[in-house]
Amino acid sequence: MKIIFTFLFLFLLLQSCEKSKDNEGLPTPPALELQSEILAQSLQHPWEIVYGPDEMIWLTERSGKISRLNPNNGVVSLLHTIPEVNSIGEGGLLGMVLHPNFESNPYVYVVYDYGSGNNYQGKVVRFSYKNSTLSDPKILLDHIPAAANHNGSRLLITADEKLLITTGDAGVPSNAQQNNSLSGKILRINLDGSIPADNPFPGNAVWSTGHRNAQGLALTNDKLYSSEHGPDTDDEINLIRKGMNYGWPDVTGFCNTSQEKVFCTSKAIVEPLYTWTPTIAPSGLIYYHHDLIPQWKNSLLVVALKGTSMLQLKLDDTGTRIESVKSYFQGEFGRLRAICQSPDGKVYLATSNGNRDMVIRVSPL
CA separation (Å) from 48 to 284, 328, 359? Predict the structure, then answer.
């Protein structure tokens, strides 16, 4: 049964740390009336939600389950359980994306962790969908270092049909700077698992380096953004560019200490668009540009685990600067892991509390 809550939000500007100098002076946005509806509340650690072309919400749970949620009646139907999945700590079945031409290419792409001990690792697998069944798994990329945390694992397919994969440093920070390691990167492969000829490093899946634990990816027409966990400071929103270095572990946040400035100059480090200290653990990320909620047009929407909120980051016309930040649902639903949007402009959130986790629909009042 749907539980409907109505909220009138007076949004406060998030506090910024002194290190995040570019965050200063952002305006406080106006109030907005929203309605939230709990569609399902019987999940356990959902990690990804995708609004499918069948008007169902496809979701993964860390234990290995892939399901579909009917947004009209809240019924969750299990599609498939991947027996190889081993959920250790924050590892398990994580990101998922559907082929953009799903009717003619009914493929479901997932990334999950398997094995144990020193052989704990991740892989990207493509399944075929037919008659409410997933079958014919095809491994596209394997042997991604995994750990109990810092696994990244957000998937996204670009307009030119390339698959992007975020990976964390898997507890070995130095690997984020090594191009021969899949850790701490954003990777780019073809939809058949081969390496695109125009990748920045020939024969290498690496698209960008120097990431600690990027758990969100979002695309506009020509720009790619990520959300990334910092250590005890400096969670980040980054504008991702081909072949560029984002600094971890030698740089956290902006290049503003003497040691960081030297490294940033020598490695041409790209600084973040925005940072948070205290950290909020940003996870799922989308770009919103729909008339249903005009106040959110040309914005990044990011959900936070530690921060227990959804945040709107309003972009300027160039998409290279964040003009304002708003916080929604602070503490209302606990830890938020995933976010997606339906074609009619409604936004869906998934919690990650581990007990009776929820999928929530957000729309104007």
Answer: 8, 20, 11
Neighbours of 197 (CB within 10 A): 8
* Dihedral angle sign, alpha carbons of residues 196, 201, 202, 205: negative
Collapsing DSSP to helix, strand or coil, 259 comes out as: helix
Domain made up of 3-364: CATH architecture: 6 Propeller (2.120)
CA distances from 285 to 161, 179, 200, 254, 358 (A): 19, 26, 25, 21, 18
Concatenating the DSSP letter of every residue in 88-105 gives -TT-SEEEEEE-TTTTTS
- Does position 85 have pLDDT exceeding 70, yes or no? yes
- Per-residue pLDDT of 35-63, as tens digits, reads 999 999 999 999 999 999 999 999 999 99
- Taking the C-alpha atoms of residue 342 and residue 189, their distance in angstroms, rounded to an integer, is 26
Contact 55, 42 (CB under 8 A): no
Residue type, 46: P
How far apart, in whole angstroms, are the C-alpha atoms of residue 20 and residue 304?
18
> Alpha-carbon distance 280 to 201, whole Å?
33
**pLDDT (tens digit per residue) in 170-221:** 999 999 999 999 999 999 999 999 999 999 999 999 999 999 999 999 999 8
Q: Pull the structure tokens for residue 121.
A: 């690792």
CA–CA dist 343, 329 (Å, integer): 23
Q: Of the candidates 239, 254, 201, 217, which has an alpha carbon nearest to the alpha carbon of residue 322? A: 239
Nearest to 130 by CA among 102, 161, 93, 96: 102
Nearest-angstrom CA–CA distance, 268 and 261: 10
Report pTM: 0.92
Where do the structural domains in the chain lie, given as residue ranges? 3-364
One-letter amino acid at 289 equals H
Q: How far apart are CA 97 and CA 95, in angstroms?
A: 7
